[in-house]
Amino acid sequence: MTQRLAADVVPADPSFDRYARMVTRYLAVPMAMVTMLEEDRQVFPGADGLPDDLAQTRSTPLAQAFCQHVVAREAPVVVTDVRVDGQFGDDAVVSELGAIAYAGWPLIDEAGATIGVLCAVDTEPREWTREDLDALADLADACSAEILYRRRQQRAEVAAGHAREISHRSQVLLALSEGLSATRTLDDIAYAVEQIAVENIGCLHAGIWLRSSFLGDHENPDQLRFVSDPTVRWTSAQVNSEVATDAEHPVAEALRNGRPLFFRDRDSQNLRYPHLSASTQVGEARALMPLSLGQAFGTLVLLWEDVQDVSAQMRITIAALTSYVAQAVQRAVLYQERVDASMTLQSAMLTRLPEAPGMDLTARYRPAAVHDRVGGDWYDAVVTASGETNLMIGDVSGHDISAAAVMGELRSTLRAFAWANDDLPAANVGRLDEAMETFGIERFASLVFARIEKADGDGSRVIHWTNAGHFPPLVVHPGGQVELLDDGTAPDPVVGIDASVPRHNQQAVIPRGSMLLLYTDGLIERRDEPIDEGLQRLRIAASRHHGLTPGRFLDEVVEDLVGISHEDDVALLAVRFG
């Protein structure tokens, strides 16, 4: 059995040269070689004493190779004089090497197959002694052991390389999983993909193009639109921010064909798509991966700074990356659809405030920056037939559509009680508690219900209110003084727990020009902060902005206390008494 030497064993190998020198020294011969057979020649990766021309080429035609007989027989071949031995009658061997006597010993691999020969050559007839042949056999065994070690080391290096690739792939996928797990919007995903591709697979840029119909634009369905990462300047992507799905363009072709496109450099891409503008192009190697979950809906584009062929292992990593991105994009689109539906539902449930004589009513609602962007906070105002104005603000437990549904029930029920019953707030809240028990509404809610009487002669207003486990109303006086309407006693329990609990009314007189503020807990509550600190921040903000119109007042207070990112819903209802 003949096998070709592994790729790392090449001519002029110093280690094999050392074996050849040991043979010439121990057997006292002028020449020795470590030979390997190729398809049409024998090569000498190890040699000592070769004629000058052979020492340069280290090969001879296969027809002149003594060693082919050792490989063919898979056994030693020993010849005293080739000139008189009938099986070795090639004059070319004698004339080129000057070989008269020959002793060749097989070099074997781990399977016992002969893969080469360690041979001794003499230029005179020689009777090889037992000591000669034993020494040659020992050296051949040692040489075989080194070849075996090299092959095992080579396999180990290949395995280690595979292990490194797998480890790297795992790190990339872990980074991608962690990076995408916190994303909710397409902009979040664009940012995460760019960061992960740059940091983990050495990209210059990474970007996503999505079919417009997938994004809900059915008027222009045949466009691919770039999802921009606002933190990165990528001019070429912006120039190609909209690509027709039927265009001769790599982004569109990857989508249409549902197959990846790989280019080792920019020129090979432009040769295929000569009409592309090269003026803004950056990077060299490119990979364009269709984003698909059953049907292609976009393309992921990866760019590298340098020219390179994307390896098979890297392609596996990129395929996994593409799958993760496709799933994240679909989640983001579904999430946005859910948010849009939730916001529509929430908007439908939030009341259009009535006109109340002598009062300026304004409200704001800010959904939580997490969850479904819909929840259980609400406000309401009802002007009765007798002229009193009822104000309500409340918070149903939860931040999801279920909480919003319960909120809608409570808001509608309380609104009906306020319109139909000319009672003080505590009586109507008691009725709500009884209705929740009757209807089996198992959520609980905090709320403030306030009734504002018609103005007195000096323009002041009498307010009656009841507090069911909520934060106290706040009054901002014309000079900027801030007062919490809190008599020092604990508020009544939240509604939805025990309908038999008595409810209590409180009363105050509000001067003309003052502003009354009702609010939910998302305005002032913070993790790891005492509630008194949140109330103090509210007092400061309310005093600072007291001279503004109710609308601007609410906007500035929300900005001061909440900002852009917040974990809870916020509802506010303000009344300026004229």
From TrEMBL:
InterPro entries assigned to the protein according to its UniProt record, in alphabetical order: Bact_Sigma-Reg, GAF, GAF-like_dom_sf, PPM-type-like_dom_sf, PPM-type_phosphatase-like_dom
Keyword entries, A-Z: Hydrolase
GO molecular function: phosphatase activity
Domain PPM-type phosphatase: 360-577
Coiled coil: none
Lineage: superkingdom: Bacteria
Segments forming domain GAF: 11-157
Gene3D superfamilies documented for this protein: 3.30.450.40, PPM-type phosphatase domain (3.60.40.10)
Protein name from the UniProt record: GAF domain-containing protein
Organism: Nocardioides mangrovicus
